[in-house]
C-alpha cells in the first residue's frame, strides 16, 4: 500500500498524512507530512518537483497553504497519497524523509481568532452541578444553540510548551473577600480543535452544508483552566483569566478528508434545532482521547457522543454575519463521556476535588507543579483503520 | 506655534499628531499624521529625510511602528513636533501635506486579540438592573477586579464600514422557545480602546507601572451590540454572537504621550483593591464623547468617571501570565455618566426600550435600518487645550 516502512499500529498510516511545521537543527521551519515515524519534507519535495504553489510548503506556518482553500487541499492530498503509494516516487521522496525523532515540531499555524464551545452534554451537566449546585445543571439555552465564547488567540501554544501556574484572584464562597495567589485548582480540558482555512465574507453566514469549504482539519487541544480564578470571575461576562494563560495544541493537523472515514451520524437532538442549525448530513467523528498524568492513563473521553456537530458550531458562530479567517481555531469544549473514566477534566474526574483519583499510587485532584499531562487521540474508521491525531503535552512549572 | 495653518477648534492641533493609515486614489496605503484638516504623508517625509527606520511608515498598518516600542514612539513624537513647529522644515514637509478630504482612512492596525472590559460603574449598574432585574445590579466581583472578556478580533472594522443587521436566536422570557430572525434590539456601546504596541512575555504579568511601556495610544470604539441575541446566549459563558458581528474603531490613534496632558487622578476605589491592582499614580483621562444618531446629538458620556484605570485593566488581563502582542486592543467597556444624557448605549438611554428618546422629531429606542451613528471624542488638557480623538461612524444595513 506504501513503499514507506510504517511501524505496526502507527497513528500516521498511509491514508492519514497530517501536516505540520517542523524544524531540523537551525534550518528554516517548513511544512512536513507525518507518515509512520518519519516526516516528509514537503518544501524540498514540492520544490524539486516544481509543483505549482510549492512555496506554501516553505512557509513557517500552514496559513498560506490553508488560505488556498478546498481545491488546493484536495489536490495536495491527492499528491501526497500518490507520493507514498506509488513506488515510482521512491527515488524522489526517500532523500527527504526525516525521522520524527530528529525534528522539533512547532506551532502548526498562526491562530487568528480562538473560539471555545461547550458541546458535550455530559461535561456541561457536570460543570453545572459543580459550579451552580443550587440550580438546574443544564441552562435553558444549552439545547437550542452551541454555547461558546472567545478565548485568547495569543496564548495558544505549541505542544511541549511549559505551562507556568497562573496567579490571580480567587474567592471561596465562605471567604469575605478575594485573595491573590497561585491557582490551587489548575486543570485541563480535553478538546478537539477545528482549523479554518478558507475565509468567509463579513455579513455572510456559513451554512452547515458549507463546513468543509472552510474547515481544513483538526488538532488535539488542551484548554488549561484555573477553576478557582474562573469561578470568581465568570459572572456575568464569562471565563477570562481562568482560561487565557495558555491553550496547548498538537503539532499535526489531520485533514477532514482523512477523518471522513471515521465520520458517524450525529446523535438525535431534542428539542429539534432551528433551521439554520439543521441538516440531513450532520456528522460527528469516532475519536477517542487518552489522557495521561505523569504517564498513567486517567481517562478516555469519546468524541462521538458530543451533542453538537462541528458544522453546527461554525454555522452558529457565523449566523450573525461574523466572518471567519484563515487560522481561526474553534474548539469543541471539553469532551466527557458517561463513564467516570471518560471525563475530560480533573474537576470532573475528582468531582470538584472531593473524590481524589489514584495516580501512580498517590491521591490526586488538581494539577501539581511538575505534573506532565499528555493527551493523545485517534479516530477509528468504519473498517477499523486507526487515524491518529498525535498528542499534545505540557508540564506545569511553579507560579512566578 | 506651528507654520501649518490649523482651523480654529480643530481636534488635531500641533501637539496631538495622531497616526493613521490613509490611501490616496489607488496608491499604496501608508502612515500619516493628522494636523488640522490635513494629513502629513510620513512615508514620503521620512524617506526623503532618510530617517532611521523610515520603512515602518510605508507599511499598510501601524503594527511595524507599534512593535518598535516606547523609545521609538517617543523619538517619533519628537520628530513630528519638530516637523510642525520648526518653520525650517516647511520646505521639506509642505509638499507632503494632503487635505483629509482627499484621502480614505483605513484600519489603523491589524488587531491581534480584542478584549472588552466593563469598567463604568454606572453602565454595569444600569445593565445589571436591565438584564437581571431580580438581583443586586452590581455583582460581588465587580469592585474587586476589572471584569472583561475576549471579543472577536477578526470583525473589528474601520470607521465607515456599513454594519449589516445581525440575525440569530433570541427568546423573550414569555416565549416558550427561541426564534431565529434579525436582531430587534440593535445597539451601540461607546468605548475607549487602548492599543498595545510592545509585546510582553508569556508567563510574565505587566504591572500597573509598566502600562506606558506596552500601550501606545487610544482609539474611539463603537462595540455594536444585539441585546436580544446577547440576553439569550450569555449565561454562563458570556456574550458571543450579540457582539461578534462588528466592532468599529476610529482611524486616528492618539498617543498616550499626547493624551498625558488630559490625565486626571483615578477616583477612589472602595473596597481597596488587591496589591497587583494598586498604584500611587493611577490615572484616568478627561475625555468626553459625543454620540450622534442621524446627525442629532443624543448623549455625551464622560470618560473621567470610569471606575477602573486602563493600567489596572492591563495588569489584570496579564496577571495570570497571559502575554500581550503588538496590535492587541482592549476597550474600556461602555462609558456611561450619571446623567441620562451621558449614557453610552441605547438600552440605557431608552431604559430597555421603555422610555423612548426623541430624535429628529421621532420617538426612538434601538437602531433602525438606515440609521447612522457617529461617535466623536476629545480630551481636554488641564490648560483647556482640546486633544481630539476624531470619530467613528457606521450605518445600519438591513439583515440579509
TrEMBL record, chains A, B:
Residue ranges occupied by any Fumarylacetoacetase-like C-terminal domain in the UniProt entry: 115-395
SUPFAM superfamilies: FAH, Fumarylacetoacetate hydrolase, FAH, N-terminal domain
Keywords linked to the UniProt accession: Calcium, Hydrolase, Magnesium, Metal-binding, Phenylalanine catabolism, Tyrosine catabolism
Single GO term (MF): hydrolase activity
Cofactor dependency: Ca(2+); Mg(2+)
Pathway(s) the chain acts in: Amino-acid degradation; L-phenylalanine degradation; acetoacetate and fumarate from L-phenylalanine: step 6/6
Domain Fumarylacetoacetase N-terminal: 15-108
Gene3D superfamilies: Fumarylacetoacetase, N-terminal domain (2.30.30.230), Fumarylacetoacetase-like, C-terminal domain (3.90.850.10)
EC annotation from Swiss-Prot or TrEMBL: 3.7.1.2
InterPro entries, alphabetized: Fumarylacetoacetase, Fumarylacetoacetase-like_C, Fumarylacetoacetase_C_sf, Fumarylacetoacetase_N, Fumarylacetoacetase_N_sf
Protein name: fumarylacetoacetase
Organism: Kribbella orskensis
Amino acid at each position: 500500500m506504501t513503499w514507506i516502512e510504517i511501524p505496526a499500529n502507527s497513528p500516521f498510516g498511509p491514508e492519514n498524512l497530517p501536516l505540520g511545521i517542523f524544524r531540523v537543527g537551525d534550518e528554516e521551519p517548513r511544512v512536513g507530512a507525518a507518515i509512520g515515524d518519519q516526516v516528509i519534507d514537503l518544501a524540498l519535495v514540492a520544490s524539486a518537483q516544481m509543483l505549482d504553489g510549492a512555496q506554501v510548503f516553505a512557509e513557517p506556518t500552514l496559513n498560506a497553504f490553508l488560505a488556498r482553500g478546498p481545491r488546493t487541499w484536495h489536490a495536495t492530498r491527492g499528491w501526497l497519497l500518490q507520493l507514498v503509494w506509488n513506488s515510482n516516487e521512491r527515488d524522489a521522496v526517500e532523500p527527504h524523509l526525516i525521522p520524527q525523532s530528529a525534528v522539533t515540531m512547532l506551532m502548526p499555524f498562526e491562530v487568528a481568532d480562538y473560539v471555545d464551545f461547550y458541546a458535550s452534554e455530559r461535561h456541561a451537566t457536570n460543570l453545572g452541578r459543580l459550579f451552580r449546585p443550587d440550580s438546574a445543571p443544564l441552562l435553558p439555552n444549552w439545547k437550542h444553540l452551541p454555547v461558546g465564547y472567545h478565548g485568547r488567540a495569543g496564548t495558544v501554544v505549541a505542544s511541549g510548551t511549559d505551562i507556568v501556574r497562573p496567579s490571580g484572584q480567587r474567592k471561596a464562597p465562605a471567604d469575605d473577600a478575594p485573595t491573590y495567589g497561585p491557582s490551587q485548582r489548575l486543570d485541563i480540558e480535553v478538546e478537539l480543535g477545528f482549523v479554518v482555512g478558507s475565509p468567509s465574507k463579513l455579513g455572510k453566514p456559513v451554512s452547515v452544508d458549507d463546513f468543509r469549504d472552510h474547515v481544513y482539519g483538526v488538532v488535539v487541544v488542551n484548554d488549561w483552566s484555573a477553576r478557582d480564578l474562573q469561578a470568581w470571575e465568570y459572572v456575568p461576562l464569562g471565563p477570562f483569566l481562568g482560561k487565557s494563560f495558555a491553550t496547548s495544541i498538537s503539532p499535526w493537523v489531520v485533514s477532514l478528508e482523512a477523518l471522513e472515514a471515521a465520520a458517524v451520524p450525529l446523535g438525535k437532538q431534542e428539542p429539534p434545532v432551528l433551521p439554520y442549525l439543521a441538516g440531513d448530513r450532520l456528522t460527528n467523528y469516532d475519536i477517542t482521547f487518552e489522557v495521561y498524568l505523569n504517564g498513567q492513563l486517567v481517562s478516555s473521553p469519546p468524541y462521538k457522543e458530543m451533542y453538537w456537530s462541528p458544522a453546527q458550531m461554525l454555522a452558529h458562530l457565523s449566523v450573525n454575519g461574523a466572518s471567519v479567517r484563515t487560522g481561526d481555531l474553534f474548539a469543541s469544549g471539553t469532551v466527557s463521556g458517561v463513564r467516570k473514566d471518560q471525563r475530560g477534566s480533573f474537576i470532573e474526574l475528582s468531582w470538584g476535588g472531593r473524590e481524589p483519583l489514584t495516580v501512580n499510587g498517590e491521591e490526586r485532584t488538581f494539577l501539581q507543579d511538575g505534573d506532565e499531562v499528555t493527551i493523545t487521540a485517534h479516530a477509528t474508521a468504519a473498517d477499523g483503520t486507526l487515524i491518529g491525531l498525535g498528542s499534545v503535552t505540557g508540564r506545569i512549572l511553579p507560579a512566578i
